[in-house]
Amino acid sequence: MTTAMRTASPRPERPQTDCALADRVAGMETPMLTEMAAATFHLERLLQSVGTPEQELAAYTVDMTAARHCDYVLGAADRIRRALDKLTAPYETPATTNTETGTDQSGAAA
After folding, report:
1. Domain count, the chain
2. Is residue 4 in some structural domain?
3. Do 55 and 44 share a domain, yes or no?
4. What is the Rg, in whole angstroms, of the alpha carbon atoms belonging to the chain?
5. Quick check: 72 and 53 in contact, CB under 8 A?
6. Which DSSP category does 95 fall into?
7. Rounded Cα distance, 92 and 27, in Å
8. Residues 53-88: pLDDT tens digits?
9. What is the structure's pLDDT at 78?
10. Binning pLDDT at 50, 70 and 90, where does residue 31 land?
11. Nearest Cα to 37, choosing from 52, 17, 55, 56?
12. How far apart are CA 43 and CA 41, in angstroms?
């Protein structure tokens, strides 16, 4: 459930989320940056609390194989990477190759 919260931004209100970090920084950044910051915070916090693969496998309340758990973990990571690539693609500048010298903008051989 979301509720509106007042901000100091030109937009008078932004929806409040279930994430305390996103709600705290809402209005200071664009909605995209707020969500990216919150996602980063969640992943960094996960790094501090995640167990070994064996401990994670033991935490299931249903039967689970190590191979299937591995597939789930790697699949989720792929989804995160694909989403991040789509978000950042408009901001990335493709390397422009200088056809006369055969080098890219950094001077490295293309």
Report:
1. 2
2. yes
3. no
4. 21
5. no
6. P
7. 25
8. 999 999 999 999 999 999 999 999 999 999 999 999
9. 97
10. confident
11. 17
12. 6
Are residue 7 and residue 42 in the same domain, yes or no?
Answer: yes
pLDDT at 58: 93
Residue 68 belongs to domain spanning: 51-90
Distance from C-alpha of 62 to C-alpha of 108, rounded to nearest angstrom = 53
Residue 89 is given by DSSP the state: G
In a domain, 101, yes or no: no
* Residues 5 and 29 reside in one and the same domain: yes
Rounded CA separation 36/87 (Å): 10
Q: Which runs of consecutive H residues, i.e. helices, occur in 13-91?
A: 20-25, 31-49, 53-58, 66-88
Choose among 32, 26, 29: nearest CA to 6. 26
Question: For 11, which DSSP code?
Answer: S
According to DSSP, residue 90 is labeled: G
